[in-house]
Amino acid sequence: MLVVGILSCLSLLVWLFFLFGRGGFWRIAWPAAVPAPAQWPGVVAIVPARNEAGCIGPSLRSLLTQTYAGELTVIMVDDHSDDGTASIAAAVAREVGAAHRLIVIPAPPLPADWVGKVGAQQQGVAAAAAIAPHAEFLFLTDADVDHPADELASLVARAVAGHLDLASEMVRLRAVSPAERWLVPAFAYFFAQLYPPRWVADPRRATAAAAGPCMLVRRAALDAIGQLNAIHSAIIDDCALAAALKPHGAIRLDPSKGAISLRAYADWHPIWQMVARSAFTELHGSYLALAAVTVTMLLNFLVPPLLAIAGALSGAWWGWPAAMAWLAMAVSYRPTLRHYGQPGWHALLMPLVAMFFLGAMLDSARLRRLGRGGEWKGRVNNVANWNDISESVELW
After folding, report:
1. Cβ–Cβ contacts within 10 Å for residue 190, how many?
2. By the 8 A CB rule, do 170 and 191 touch?
């Protein structure tokens, strides 16, 4: 009973720390409005696309119809697609009268030690230097994002006013299918827990993160770190880029009010694959770290409801601290659920959702051991090193 009581009280202390000592990660804090710059700088948007026929049309349409007052060029890097992605992109550009602003280039063969997406992005960065050498910013985005018309103007204004080298926004993922409604908000919640946005923006902290679908990067800062060569083998490329840039300048990560992912997850399996693709990389490929994360996730997420229920049934005192820990867990999760338009009572089932993500993390280690780590669209990214910056062990 003494051990059970200690676990119950410890779980409450952990969740009180998460509520009050983890940078307020659970709050949805919108960026403050800033004035427009005196002169809008040139921007080159770079879109790597690999078999994105289902998404590239609306995504490029939203980019090419931005209400940005400065010069905007869009480079799409066709990463060996075989589904007509490039022809759809060209057709959309003609349809919106912006064929002169879209440049489609084919990606060359991928070097052995490069991750596919990063390699395609680097080709876009190199092309931008020749096509728009005076552009001050590069907008790195994905081929499956529907951008609001004022997104680029908002990001540029924020970057100019705050002297930022990186301004990134967390695109809202789809939450339509039952699997998405239950699992997608938790994915966003765990990301914020791992990388509290307030800590990302704090120059005194090493915490660095970005959201790959929406990253505005100052070109001079990117050139200073050797462009994307600095992260060429990083599976979690967005956070690796943020970590490379932060020692040299200011960065921010904010939630997006209007940018929406177009990628659909019909059931739980593709969401599992999305997590399993990179979770073990978050732990630097360490089985010791994996064991530590497994134990602490069980203690943090599963122990509170189990002890709360057992304590209620037996009338034991130690049920109350566990119940309070469970309640703190739910309170911290509710703002994310609200952001995704999901009912608040889902927060009480966070322990079960957390076990889903723990299972995907364990599967990530299995896939790495089988030589299938980082698999995405038929390409396996089994890089040999672990350059991705992570705080997983410190968090759990």
Report:
1. 17
2. yes
What Å distances lie between residue 324 and 9, 13, 207, 299, CA to CA? Answer: 9, 10, 29, 14
Q: What's the rounded Cα separation, in Å, for the pair 239 and 224?
A: 17
Cα–Cα separations (whole angstroms), residue 123 to 55, 106, 128: 21, 9, 9
DSSP reduced 3-state for 145 = strand
Q: Inter-axis angle of helices 303-314 and 2-21, to 10 degrees?
A: 130
State the pLDDT confidence band at 160, using cuts at 50, 70 and 90. very high
Kindly state the DSSP code that residue 376 receives in the 8-state scheme.
Answer: B
Q: Nearest Cα to 48, choosing from 85, 93, 20?
A: 85
Residue 245's pLDDT is 97
Distance (Å, whole) CA 273 – CA 183 = 13
Residue 101 CB contacts under 8 Å (≥ 6 apart), including other chains: 64, 72, 73, 74, 93
Q: How far is CA 354 from CA 56, 181, 185, 300, in A?
A: 32, 14, 11, 10
- CA 156/CA 139 separation, integer angstroms: 10
Query: How far, CA to CA in Å, does 174 sit from each of 47, 87, 190, 259?
Result: 20, 26, 16, 11
Both tokens of residue 358?
A: 């723990």
User: Among 64, 65, 34, 273, which Cα is nearest to 156's?
Assistant: 34
Token pair for 155: 């990001």
Instruction: Enumerate residues 6+ apart whose C-beta is below 8 A from 288.
Output: none
Cβ burial of 24 (10 Å; 0-12, 13-18, 19+) is middle
Residue from 119, 84, 116, 46 nearest 377 by CA:
116
Angle between helices 319-339 and 2-21 (to 10 degrees): 30
**393 pLDDT higher than 80:** no
Residue with tokens 């809008």: 40
- Quick: pLDDT tens for 193-236: 999 999 999 999 999 999 999 999 999 999 999 999 999 988 88
Task: Work out whether strand 137-141 and strand 43-49 pair parallel, antiparallel, or are unpaired.
Answer: parallel
The residue-averaged pLDDT of 155-176 equals 96
Per-residue DSSP letter, 47: E
Q: Which residues of 34-50 are buried (b: 16+ CB within 10 A; e: fewer)?
A: eeeeeebbbbbbbbbbb
